[in-house]
Design brief:
This protein has two domains: 9-218, Alpha-Beta Barrel (TIM Barrel); 222-268, no CATH class. The longest helix is centred in the middle third of the chain and has 18 residues, at 152-169. It contains twelve helices and nine strands. It is globular and about 65 Å long. Helix 2 packs parallel to helix 3 (71-80), helix 8 crosses helix 9 (185-198) and helix 11 (222-237) crosses helix 12 (253-268). By secondary structure, the chain is α/β, with parallel strands linked by helices. The model has no long low-confidence stretch (mean pLDDT 93). Helices cover 48% and strands 13% of the residues.
């Protein structure tokens, strides 16, 4: 399977918009997703597929295809699989959905978007699919499926299910969905911080102006990196035994592992 690296931000561009297909690569996102699904009108699907192929020939990116097991998805995969960095599968509800895509896009990283009650309840099996590298929280569709407006408490169970399923399967932390109020930077900052506090890493974006806030939320701060370095220095000096840092914090195996996680996250984005 192709290499998969964590990203703080995934910036979407509609596959039928020539101007955005050019601009998205220069916007500063960690990763680019060219969209063939929800952002593309029904009458533009075929044209979008051709335009995305041309864009990928100039520079690779992720692609969000149409729903698994559909004729459109089969056509998407036949066209883009040889050119992409990875595939985002929308509306995944079973491990069989993942296997169907994998059979048509072998050796590619597959990010599985959970956007329904069925998907949330099947998250453990989806995350355990051999081809799955990450779960994506599809907030807009999930809220529509549940007939809710969203919010931290209303989505807490679903989000936490994704975190637990990903960890149990040994794959990357899940990526948070897009925040649709483009001008609301405070709301975006709160949502990104909430996702990070639950164990998510990274967030989808639908406009370049969202990237700075997302990067801030998912970048370990200098203070966090310094803490991690102090913790590991004390732990290593004690030969892996319980120890105490110079400022009095007790360090044992779980604290040291958390410090390593902070440094790994920092290293992923340098």
């Amino acid at each position: 399977m192709a290499e998969f690296a964590l990203a703080r931000s995934y910036l979407f561009a509609p596959g039928h918009d020539a101007k955005l297909l050019e601009r998205v690569y220069a916007a500063g996102a960690d990763a680019v997703v060219l969209d063939l699904e929800d952002a593309v009108p029904e009458d533009a699907k075929q044209r979008a597929r051709a335009m995305v192929v041309e864009a990928l020939r100039r520079r690779p990116a992720w692609v969000r295809v149409n729903a698994a097991r559909s004729s459109r998805c089969a056509a998407d995969l036949e066209a883009v699989a040889p050119l992409v960095l990875g595939i985002r599968i929308p509306k995944v509800e079973s491990a069989e959905d993942v296997a169907w895509v994998a059979a048509r896009a072998p050796q590619l990283p597959l990010a599985c978007t959970i956007e329904s009650a069925r998907g949330v309840l099947a998250a453990r099996e989806i995350a355990a699919a051999p081809e799955a590298v990450q779960l994506i929280y599809g907030n807009a569709d999930l809220c529509a499926d549940l007939a809710i407006d969203g919010g931290e408490m209303a989505t807490l169970y679903a989000r936490s299910q994704l975190v637990l399923a990903a960890r149990a399967a040994g794959i990357a932390p899940p990526c948070d969905g897009a925040y649709t109020r483009i001008a609301d930077e405070d709301g975006l900052r709160r949502e990104a911080a909430f996702a990070r506090s639950l164990g998510f890493f990274g967030k989808s974006a639908i406009h370049p102006r969202q990237l700075a806030v997302i990067h801030e939320a998912f970048t370990p701060s200098p203070a966090q990196v310094a803490w991690a370095q102090r913790v590991l220095a004390a732990f290593d000096a004690a030969g892996g035994a319980a120890a105490r840092t110079q400022d009095g914090e007790m360090v044992d195996v779980p604290v040291a592992e958390r410090a390593r996680q902070v440094l790994r996250f920092a290293g992923e984005i340098q």
